[in-house]
User: Which sequence fits this backbone?
């Protein structure tokens, strides 16, 4: 069986008991970065054979994983953090296993997408997750334009090195909507900035941030919900939405 095992997005204490059991029972753990996965396993005293599988892995590597499943080996698939397959190369493994009618099990667990959505203060009734936008400005603006009329909350992953440019493109294409940037979720320096896009750009230009980031933007025609007191406020500062 191939078991999809979500891992913590930051705080190692966020792993589930079921996920730990699956890792202990696996014959081999297929992971994005063996060094990152080894840190998690060492923390919980788990010793297992690891197999790397990342965005540059070949079709032959995928076939090798499927061959192990056919032999009756139990494999656990993990990413560097969160739910595997979400902006993650593990999709090819799952697709190949299902095509061969092999057993696939998915465990529930941490996800930065839904965690950031709840933290943001933006509407949670519906949302669109678009992963990483293009790192090319013209194409990124084109991708944003395709989402301009969507009324649900828009969610993206972004690099700290491109986040300001991405916010500037969003402002130019979507207008000065309410938005939030969540970074280092569940980690020591967790922070969520909330406000209009123009305010977030000004704040992040004045004080650049590092770390993994999730950008959330209000949908078209959504009623404004942020007060001035909330704009660019750290998530750990008490406030009432």
Assistant:
């Amino acid at each position: 069986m191939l078991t999809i095992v979500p891992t913590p997005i930051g705080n190692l204490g966020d792993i589930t008991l079921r996920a730990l059991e699956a890792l202990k029972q696996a014959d081999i753990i297929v992971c994005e970065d063996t060094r990152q996965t080894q840190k998690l396993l060492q923390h919980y005293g788990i010793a297992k054979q690891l197999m790397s599988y990342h965005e540059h892995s070949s079709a032959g590597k995928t076939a090798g994983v499927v061959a192990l499943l056919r032999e009756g080996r139990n494999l656990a698939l993990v990413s560097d953090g969160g739910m595997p397959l979400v902006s993650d190369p593990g999709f090819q493994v799952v697709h190949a296993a299902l095509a061969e009618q092999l057993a696939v099990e998915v465990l529930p667990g941490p996800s930065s997408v839904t965690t950031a959505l709840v933290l943001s203060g933006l509407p949670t009734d519906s949302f669109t997750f678009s992963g990483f936008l293009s790192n090319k400005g013209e194409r990124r603006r084109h991708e944003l334009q395709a989402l301009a009329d969507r009324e649900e909350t828009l969610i993206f992953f972004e690099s700290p090195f491109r986040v300001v440019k991405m916010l500037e493109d969003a402002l130019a294409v979507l207008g000065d909507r309410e938005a939030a940037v969540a970074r280092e979720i569940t980690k020591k320096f967790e922070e969520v900035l909330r406000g209009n896009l123009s305010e977030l750009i000004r704040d992040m230009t004045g004080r650049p941030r590092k770390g993994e980031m999730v950008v959330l933007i209000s949908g078209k025609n959504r009623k404004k919900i942020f007060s001035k007191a909330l704009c660019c406020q750290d998530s750990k500062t008490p406030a009432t939405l």
User: Anything to note?
Assistant: The beta strands are 2-4, 28-31, 49-52, 75-78, 104-106, 127-132, 153-158, 178-183, 191-196, 213-217. Residues 59-70 form the longest helix (12 residues). The chain has a mean pLDDT of 91.
